[in-house]
Amino acid sequence: MSMGKLSGKTAVVTGGASGVGFAICQRFGREGMNIVVADIEQAALDRAVGQLESEGVRAKGVVTDVTDEQSVRNLCEQAYDTFSQVDMLFNNAGVGVKEADRKIWELTANDWSWGYSVNVMGIANGVRAFVPKMLEVGKPCHIINTTSFNGACISFPTTPIYASSKAAVTSLTEVLYAQLAKVAPDIKVHLLFPGPHMVNTQILASQRNRQEKFKDDNKVEDYLTMEDLKKSALGANAEFKLTEPEEVAESCYEGVMAGQFWIRPYLEEHQAMISGRTESVLKNENPAVM
After folding, report:
1. Domains parsed from the chain with CATH numbers
2. Which family is this protein grouped under (predicted)?
């Protein structure tokens, strides 16, 4: 699928009503793509579809709970029923558990279940629902999974659930890439790293969408302060910068069009951290404490 030939193609974006997901909807919509916006929030979904349509994008909203297998299968059915083909699947939905001031052993079973059910099983459900249909249709297409530098490259000790879930996403996507390269090379797989800095979204205010089945009696506050945000990034004393969702969407577009698997913005600080971790593995050295 070459640049300039996206008009009339169809993209499905989970977590598409806000943040990076919505920016991706807008960016690829500007290329003339039909956009299927999937999100768990009906009100946000309606706003997103309305905004896209006002920008001249042909859009359809589908309320989707990515933790629910049947809900994702319904999304797949509606996308193909409406547009007959899915050319790009963005498995983008993700949540952040409020964990910066909590230890692994203090996080509840529901905290773990929720984080992994959205961040990992949400992608697995997307793959399981869409890939068989993609194989059946037999046309070139793309799958783009959203990971994070935090977990994929370095695990920040303030985010045990988030970091470990994104490590799982990265491994899952590498395996998907290898398997599809053998059986269906026209299905291209990509791994999107939002950044290079923490992205200016509401992911750390995700409690608003926490399903009843994952809730505890002791409620965690819904919204994080900017200080919480800083601690969840690189530590309370780190220089704090933000990346805007539109920047992520642009790098995503460029990476997909270039056929890149690793769609990761360059940051010198990150390069040094990756090198340090890799060296410790190669030399069997104990990890540095962050």
Report:
1. 10-282 (3.40.50.720)
2. Belongs to the short-chain dehydrogenases/reductases (SDR) family.
Please say if the pLDDT value at position 39 is more than 90: yes
**pTM of the predicted model over 0.90:** yes
How much of the chain is helix, strand and coil, in % rounded to 5?
A: 50, 15, 35
Q: How far apart are CA 28 and CA 246, in angstroms?
A: 11
Query: For this structure, is 162 an active site residue?
Result: yes
| Active-site option among 162, 177, 223, 253 | 162
| Cis preceding-peptide flag for 196 (omega within 30 of 0) | yes
- The residues, ordered by sequence, that sit 6+ positions from 164 with a Cβ below 8 Å of its Cβ are 151, 155
217-263 pLDDT, tens digit each: 877 664 455 556 655 555 445 566 888 999 999 999 999 999 999 99
Beta strand residue intervals within 125-186, DSSP E: 141-146
